[in-house]
Amino acid sequence: MKPRVLNSLGRFFWQWRAVLVATPSVTALVILLRFLGLLQSWEWAAFDQFMRLRPAEPVDERIAIVGLNESDLRELGSAVISDQVYAELLEKLRSQSPRAIGLDVYRDLPVEPGHAALTEVFETTPQLIGIQKVVGEVGLDTVAPPPALAAKGQVGANDLVVDADNTVRRGFVSVQNKEGETVYSLSLYLALLYLDAEGIGPEMLEDDAWQLGEATFSPFLGNDGGYIRADAAGYQQLINYRGPQRTFETVSFSDVLNDQLPADWASDRIVIVGAVSESFNDTFYTPYRGNVLSLPTRTPGVEIHANLTSQFISGAVNSRAMIHSWNEPMEWLWIFGWAGLGSAIVWLCSPTGPQLKKRWQRISMIAIAVMTLFGSTYVPFLYGWWLPAVPAFLASVGAATVVTTYLAYTASDIRRTFGRYLSDEIVTALLENPEGQKLGGERREITILTSDLRGVTATSERLPPEMVIKVLNFYLGHMADVITRYNGTIDEFMGDGILILFGAPVRREDDAQRAVACAVDMQLAMGAVNETIQSWGLAPLEMGIGIHTGEVVVGNIGSEKRTKYGIVGSPVNLTYRIESFTTGGQILISTETRSAAGEMVHIGGEQQVKPKGVAQPITIYDVQGVGAPYNIALLKEEEFFFPLEQAIPVMFNVLEGKSINDTLLKGQLIELSEKGALLQMSAMVPVALSALNNLKLNFLQADASGADSLSEDVYAKVIEQRSQAEGGIFQLRFTAKPPAIADQLNHLYQSIGMATS
How far is residue 235's CA from residue 230's CA, in Å, rounded to a whole number? Predict the structure, then answer.
């Protein structure tokens, strides 16, 4: 096979992988459940429901019933009907020349008075068929036929087949007695007498099938339709009922005995005589027993025999359908097809498969599938085909469920994967919101938090890349946990910086408050981060945080091929500017954020700054903590400055954003603290310093030859101007120090502190 063909097949199998796995698996499971008989009762229920849903059929006028009811007993004045009554009844019916009379009453023993008269009627009525019960243990379950009718061979079996749910869906065509003799059922015997007048008789075919007029009959098998290993003894047929109780014309014993019927009422008809009241214990449940909204009703046995008799006659004369079913391989293929359809629909409607993107397409597909499943089983049933509706439904739903579960599992993997890059809320918005994947955005006021580590860039140049990644991942992992607790949305990691949104994609009333509280908690979490980092032999980290509240455009940005959930607007840039003014461990917020957060924010100070790109100066506030319901505050560290016995000369440049001003300035460090120093600038310096300027310093050191040399770069931020004497004295906060210089400064600070104390 050519590689191109193999590649095409591989792509096809991958594209439809869930369908190709779910379909055969679920099919096999449904077939197994069916084989175990676990679906049999459901399939019977579906059969019954389809039977009830069919349009009403016209009354079969060829068959009538003479039913013994409670009113007849009251009129006759006895609960036991004597042979005399039956003899009179049969005489009156015989006088109207019916084609056949079925006596669905046991008369194996005489019931005086009138036994002789009844025996004479039996002997002189060739179209009269009596009954016997054949199935069961002899002497316990069986009932002998009337002797006079048995002698003439005018006896049929009235046995009925009752399913496990006490419902009669099958009837006997014939049954064998204990002597191995074939006994026609009462229904078949009556039908044959009727059809004999039409010149129609049975003709045997191959495989136990037989022809009767226009109808072909085949024996019921144990696995036909929804049956599983049913007892198929004798020659059985599924009963195609014409309708519910009282489908056939029924008159009472009294109507016949009192001559209240037309003289030709029974002419050319089949008349079946039997009990129709519940008290005679000859009633059964049929598919027309009722539904969940009504109490179940029972049908007299005489009516069931009438239905089966009508089935024989209607099939032979009118080509009325028998109830057929497919063989098992065809049913398996049918179940397989519906499993495939169910899984394919879910797969097509999913983001993973070759998707149907529009909601109306998905709804239409599901609706069409449901209607097709109902129609493809109900319509054939109207024509006599009982197809597996329940297994097909379970296979379809089961396969759809398997694919849905697979998609959910895959989606959870996708969520976990994307959750490492995006917040859970963004992933949910993208995966579950129909609008979530569209390009574009909306204007919304949100609170933006950005954080950045101090001196990581310089430090990373001295560490192996693997260690840098290890440190950053450890730090970002701790920060992500804190951010998640406050329902912040991590929009992006930028090296050691984090951009966090409060108010997108989900907006809440306390967005600004949560942002400030989150910032405080992030700073507090740095303690645990630094404990671990210092145990690795590295210098502790410091973080600055800036927060601003403003209106931005938030949504999906990019192209159809590559999209990013993000924000656009000047408030984003202003947040970065505010953060750039921070020192390690500091949180600065804008006026807008302070107003939105309210009185819960504890402010330690404020100052005006003029960020680059902003026309007017703005006020920023130094956050020290937040009140209820959070009640957390930054740790207060008192800073002590000690004068140096010998000032440290430095050369420095002012940083302008990420660029370094080319003007090289001179000064000296005159006092030292644990994290900073006092810088005294040389007189007549051409550049004026101001608070929050960032500096790059190099210490002047004597080399081995005694000549001055510059140390490695040290970075610091101007906190405030302490004095205007000479060139000015400024308080600095170190932001990044090379390890060697950090050790020197720490050693010097400790020695000065000890000497001072």
Answer: 13
Contact partners, residue 167, CB within 8 Å, separation at least 6: 44, 48, 284, 285, 286, 287, 289
Among the listed ranges 45-59, 152-166, 412-426, 510-524, which one has the minimum average pLDDT value?
Answer: 412-426
Handedness of CA 172, 173, 179, 180 (dihedral sign): negative
User: Is the pTM here over 0.70, yes or no?
Assistant: no
Q: Is the alpha carbon torsion for 508, 509, 511, 517 positive or negative?
A: negative
The predicted-structure confidence for 188-247, as pLDDT tens digits, reads as follows 999 999 999 999 999 999 888 999 999 999 999 999 999 999 999 999 999 999 999 899
Say if residues 177 and 183 touch (Cβ distance below 8 Å).
Answer: yes
Q: Which helix (H) or strand (E) is 340 found in, with range? A: helix 328-348
Which amino acid is it at 414? Answer: I
Burial 216-249 (b: 16+ CB within 10 A, else e): ebebbeebbbbbbebebebbbbbbbbbbbbebbb
Tell me how crowded residue 369 is: count the other CB atoms within 10 A of its CB.
17
Do 44 and 165 touch, CB atoms closer than 8 A?
Answer: yes
Q: Compute the distance between CA of residue 395 and CA of residue 388 in angstroms, rounded to an integer.
A: 11
* Contact indicator for 515, 460 with CB cutoff of 8 Å: no
Task: At 224, list the tokens.
Answer: 């036909």
Contact 46, 380 (CB under 8 A): no
CB atoms near residue 494 (< 10 Å) = 12
Which tokens belong to 172?
């006997």
Query: Quick one: three-class SS letters along 464-494?
Result: CHHHHHHHHHHHHHHHHHHHHHCCCEEEEEE
- Distance set, CA 329 to CA 55, 336, 424 (Å): 31, 10, 48
Report helix angle 389-419 to 424-432, nearest 10.
140
Q: Give the ranges where 56-114 is alpha helix by DSSP (H).
A: 70-76, 83-94
The residues, any chain, with a CB within 8 Å of residue 96's CB and separated by 6 or more, are 263, 264, 265, 266, 267
Whole-angstrom distance, CA of residue 412 vs CA of residue 445? 31
User: Which residues are 172's β-sheet partners?
Assistant: 236
Cα separation of 302 and 307, whole Å?
A: 9
Distance CA 606, CA 586 (A): 12
Residue 696 has pLDDT above 60, yes or no: yes
Number of Cβ within a 10 Å radius of residue 689: 20
> Model confidence over 715-750: pLDDT tens digits?
888 888 888 777 788 888 888 888 788 888 888 888
In this structure, what are the phi and psi dihedrals at residue 179, rounded to the nearest 5 degrees?
Answer: -85, 0
Asked if 504 and 512 touch (Cβ cutoff 8 Å), the reply is no
Sheet (strand 215-217) strand order = 202-204, 210-212, 215-217
Calculate Rg over the CA atoms of the chain. 48
